[in-house]
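pls ignore typos typing on phone
magnesium ion + seq
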Amino acid sequence: MQLSLSHLKKSFELTQRSGWGVERKFVHAVSDVSLDIREGESFGIVGESGSGKSTLARLILGLEQPTEGGITLGGRDVAGLTGKARRDYWKQVQIIFQDPFSSLNPRMRIGEILAEPIRNYGVATGDLTERVERLLKLVGLAPTASNRYPHELSGGQRQRVAIAAALAVEPRIILADEAVSALDVSVQAQIINLLSDLKQQFGLTYIFITHDLNLSVYFCDRIAVLYLGQIMEICSSDALLERPVHPYTQALISAVPAVDPAKRKNRTRLTGEIPSPIDPPKGCPFHPRCALAIAQCSETRPELVDIGNGHRAACHVVTQNVLQTAATT
Ligand SMILES: Nc1ncnc2c1ncn2[C@@H]1O[C@H](COP(=O)(O)OP(=O)(O)OP(=O)(O)O)[C@@H](O)[C@H]1O
Ligand SMILES: [Mg+2]
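k done
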């Protein structure tokens, strides 16, 4: 089943007291995001801090209502579901957060934590203890982990429990919001391998949210690059690494330490600060920091344009080059 986001927008209202009374301002956390996540793929969402990744995750889960736009799963509208309809949706779409401490009840033993979703969502057939043991085994934990409390486990083990809790309801899609960002590199690799194995085994779809470009390229089939709540570029992870076209993506990639010194030659430096999402720049949000910006960039927001094979970029300069190449051939 395909998950589709269509012109999704989320603005948060801020009220600030000023000399003349109360001033209303809006944080544009997610701004006109459209994308399709295909069944069985690992889809990466990459962006710097504050680019709107978690807001997008919360919208997909229905924890936030979109200001505008819609979300469909297999063609069915799922934005703003409540009650039983929302629970049915959560049976199909689960999330793993960065910090399992915030999602695992500290006063419950691991066995109880895993039994709860099985009971609540009514997926259990057969013995509950057996089901819990099977879940623990799936994520590489011993059955004895059942009797432990979250604080008695290591960070990696806790994240394994969070994965088991997500798997308990037999979902189709798992959203991982910076799920391995807080872990040591070696533990990170183990969890990534576990997620890959589970994907193979259950044919899962992943939405993998991270600020770590290397990690997303390693783990994902396709990637969307987010900047100030907008998609700058979407393409396969190979294309992102080998031939990124958006100046922002190019700058992001050259900021990542490259093992191959040849790849460091044409480095573009990302200068200046990421602007505030309260008053985002007019036109392309990246234009104040972009070395290639032309007059149009500060005037009109570029559309995502397909430059071939589903590789899409939102950049006036890229679009212009594509049109020029097409005209001369
Ligand atoms: N409930 C809220 N009220 C007001 N502003 C919010 C709210 N939630 C998010 N924001 C703002 O929306 C913007 C996007 O936040 P979000 O948490 O989605 O970013 P992020 O990409 O997940 O960042 P990080 O990498 O730091 O987790 C930020 O400017 C943030 O301050
Ligand atoms: Mg976040």
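The first strand starts at residue 3 and ends at 18. The domain at 3-248 is CATH 3.40.50.300 (Rossmann fold). more later
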